[in-house]
Structure formats: structure tokens, C-alpha cells
């Protein structure tokens, strides 16, 4: 699959401004997940997923606690989950997942980012059918063969296991996210370098030259938007990341 998730994560958090932006987005995501059920990750699986992701981005405990306290309190701030789909240059496809408390702000902002950088918005379903939802868990300190054996012994439904530099990445069905982590924890793993639920493209495209530069600007513009939580695409990351 070759998504190089560690590299993507490091790029997103490479600048102080980006780090602050990522922390703010996690604050919203944690709040929304906690409001959906109990603000306790042991009884709220959605919250548990978000907190596992937050750990891999080193989100400070103070930000996590503030979001949880807000969810436990009297705050009635309402957020809506919206997905936008669109096209970039040369057949590239983009999925934009948002959490917003102002729908009238979000759609125009996403559309403007696409239009400004050579892309266009599509209708719902125009892109997502070319992507598959996947759980992605990465660790260091164990070999690919060791991880593969652990998954086989535990009978976890795994799509693929690959080694990317010094990280072993497990790709699995979304409902296997916690199962994969639990198997690895029982084998002595206490830290995950990657913990994501993501949309993976069924096929990749490669962009070069001006098209690649334009696409990079499109992705950066989308990720900079206040309401955007995640951006997925089908461009080969060796080129654009």
C-alpha cells in the first residue's frame, strides 16, 4: 500500500503553526466524540479511537483534558460531521472530512480551496467509491514476520502488513482497529507510531511538475481550513509528500 503514514504525520506536524492547528483540531474531535456517548474511552469506542490517534501526534494532556471537561460540562456547542469530495489536477481525487459548528461557513471555504488550486467539488459519492475505509496501526521494535505471526495466531482480519522504513504497518478492516492494538499490547507493545482510521484509494496516480505543485497547494489549503479534520487522496505520496 505504501502510504508512508509516519512521513505524512511528520510533515503535518513539522511546523509550530501546523502543530498548534493539529492540536486545535484534535480538541474539537475529542469533544465531539465524548459528547456522542460517555466521556470515558473504555465505554465510548469512538472516543477511544480519537485518543489513540491523538497520542501518536503527541497532543498535550492539557488539551485532551480540556476537551473532555468541556464535554462533561454544560457546553451545548453542536458540531456536524460532513464529507466533501472533489477532484484535483490530472485525475487526482480528494476526500475532505470536516467537523463544523457553522455549515454555511464550511462548504464555501472547501469549494473556494478547490477552485483556487485547479480543482473542483464533486457530488456526494463521486470520489468515495474509489476508496476503502481502513484501520492502520504502526509500531517499531518488532519485525514484519513477528507481527504477521501475532496476527495469524490471534485470527485478526488483516488486509496487509508492510514494513516502511523502521515501522511495521498493519492494515485491517475498520472494526479490527482495537483488536490489532490489543494483540500488539499483549505482545509487549506500549506505544503506537501510527493509529488511524483512514480512507485508502484503490488506485494511485502520479503527478509531476506543475500539477504536483498545484496539488500540494490544494491539500495544504484544505488542511489549513478550521473545520477540516482529515484529507485523503489518491496521489502517490512519493511524489507529493
Description of the molecule:
The protein is α+β, with helices and mostly antiparallel strands and 241 residues long. The protein is 45% helix and 23% strand. Helix 2 runs antiparallel to helix 3 (45-56) and helix 2 (16-36) runs parallel beside helix 4. It starts with a helix and ends with a helix.
Write the layout of secondary structure elements.
Layout: H1 5-12, H2 16-36, H3 45-56, H4 61-72, E1 80-87, E2 93-100, H5 103-116, E3 120-122, E4 131-139, H6 144-154, E5 158-164, E6 167-172, H7 177-186, E7 194-201, H8 209-224, E8 228-233, H9 237-240
Antiparallel strand pairs: 1-2, 1-3, 2-8, 4-6, 4-7, 5-6
Largest sheet: 4 strands, antiparallel
Identify the overall geometry: globular
Instruction: For the record, give the distance between the C-alpha atoms at the N and C termini, rounded to a whole number.
Output: 15 Å
- Uncertain ranges: none
What topology, given as strand order, has the largest sheet?
Answer: 3-1-2-8
Amino acid at each position: 500500500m505504501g502510504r508512508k503514514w509516519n512521513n505524512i504525520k511528520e510533515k503535518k506536524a513539522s511546523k509550530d503553526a501546523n502543530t498548534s492547528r493539529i492540536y486545535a483540531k484534535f480538541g474539537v474531535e475529542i469533544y465531539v466524540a465524548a459528547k456522542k456517548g460517555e466521556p470515558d474511552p473504555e465505554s465510548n469506542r469512538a472516543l477511544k479511537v480519537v485518543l489513540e490517534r491523538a497520542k501518536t501526534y503527541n497532543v498535550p494532556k492539557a488539551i485532551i483534558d480540556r476537551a473532555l471537561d468541556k464535554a462533561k460540562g454544560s457546553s451545548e456547542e453542536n458540531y456536524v460531521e460532513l464529507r466533501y469530495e472533489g477532484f484535483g489536477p490530472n485525475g487526482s481525487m480528494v476526500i475532505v472530512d470536516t467537523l463544523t459548528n457553522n455549515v454555511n461557513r464550511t462548504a464555501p471555504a472547501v469549494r473556494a480551496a478547490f477552485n483556487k488550486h485547479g480543482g473542483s467539488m464533486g457530488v456526494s459519492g463521486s470520489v468515495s467509491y474509489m476508496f476503502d475505509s481502513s484501520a492502520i496501526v504502526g509500531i517499531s521494535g518488532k519485525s514484519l514476520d513477528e507481527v504477521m505471526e501475532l496476527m495469524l495466531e490471534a485470527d485478526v482480519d488483516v488486509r496487509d502488513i508492510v514494513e516502511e522504513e523502521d515501522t511495521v504497518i498493519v492494515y485491517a478492516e475498520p472494526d479490527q482497529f482495537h483488536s490489532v492494538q490489543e494483540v500488539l499490547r499483549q505482545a509487549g507493545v506500549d506505544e503506537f507510531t501510527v493509529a488511524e482510521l483512514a480512507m485508502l484509494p484503490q488506485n494511485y496516480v502520479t503527478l509531476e511538475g506543475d500539477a504536483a505543485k498545484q496539488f500540494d497547494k490544494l491539500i495544504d489549503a484544505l488542511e489549513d481550513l478550521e473545520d477540516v479534520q482529515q484529507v485523503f487522496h489518491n496521489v502517490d505520496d512519493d511524489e507529493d509528500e
